[in-house]
Amino acid sequence: MNCLEFRRACQADPQHLTAEQQAHRLQCAACNRFAAEQLDFDRRLASALRVPVPEGLTQRVIFERSLRGRRRRTGWLAMAASVLVVVGVTSVLLVSPSGSDIENFTAHMTAHPVDQVPLAEADGMALQRVAANLSLPAVSDLSEVVRAELCVVDGHRGAHLIVDSGEAPVTAFVMPGMTAEQLSGLSEVPGLSSQVVSTRDGLILLFCPDQSRLVELGERMRRQLGWQV
Amino acid sequence: MHRIDDKGGRRADMSSRQHQFDAMTAAVANDLFRYAVWLCRDRDLAQDLVQETLLRAWRFMDKLRDSGAVKAWLLTTLRREHARLYERKHLDRVDMDMSFIEDESGRDPFADAERRELQQRIAALPEDYREPLAMQVILGCKVAEIAEAMDLSESAVMTRLFRARKQLMDGTDRAVESVQ
């Protein structure tokens, strides 16, 4: 290998020199300096190309993956979704989402996407089973609920639901016995809007990239549950 | 009993698939975004490209996890998505618009100025040169991986990388010509 060949190769790909090129570098002081210059320039190039990344990019992709799975199945599920779920009692207060527990809920959504439950379980019986397991006298007519599964988040048992609200499916957690105080001091979740409906008998937490429907849906679910203000 | 076992197996497999996807996404999403930004020079578009690319990867996860060529597959897919987008929307390219970079100032004004100048020179490179350079420097791709992603020969990639770096360095002739 001569110096010209070395420098052509080194300038094209300074990080991946072959054994032969490394040997030439060790033998030739001028090419050694040239290679050092190229590596230094490579570091400056890397710094220049390293543009800032939007916050929460990874979480948004993972969340979108779980939503798309749901969308593909909504046609089949629409028939199975005419029953719903749930009832309780007492007062409501709308609060802003906060407290580190919310991160645990979003982590739960990612780790246990309900849309991946085998289809055989995603029927009306599954919804009734969830309600029965939570000692909630089940019910009525929130027909957009297309998935339901029991879940445990931070030691609290509840229902993990998927609500098909059209463009943007909503993930909802119905958590009997959980209080607003247990959701204190929390940061926002990038890429996700959330809404917490708190009653004396439990919480309803809703997550969706689109904030616009969450307040209305939370209120409607509260009414369906019979959890009153 | 069999049904339960099958169901348990499917769940375990799905869970493993999800974890692999999540790990892959966490590992590559940021650098893929940086590459996409330099490809399309639009941050919003770059986010869409990364999302579409990774969601396609999710559909083919079973094949991908055994292929050993995930990086090249992601890059090829992202480039195709980008090309499709331009076909569909007939987007205009604004070559010297640097607003996509959203540069952050550091502690050293001299280094900041030098970085910005270099960014402008990178943005001004012909796309044929800028793209393999971004793959190489941002994603650590080897020449063979770039060649596969861009459907070029390795020697063609070497030539493009050589010319890209040569154009970017001060006094573009000092590298090779000095020994000729």
TrEMBL record, chain A:
Q: Which InterPro entries match?
A: DUF3379 (IPR021806)
Top-level lineage group: Bacteria
Keyword tags: Membrane, Transmembrane, Transmembrane helix
- Segments traversing the membrane: 75-95
Record keyword Membrane present:
yes
Question: What Pfam families does the database record attribute to this sequence?
Answer: DUF3379
Q: This protein is called what?
A: DUF3379 family protein
- Species classification: Bacteria, Pseudomonadati, Pseudomonadota, Gammaproteobacteria, Salinisphaerales
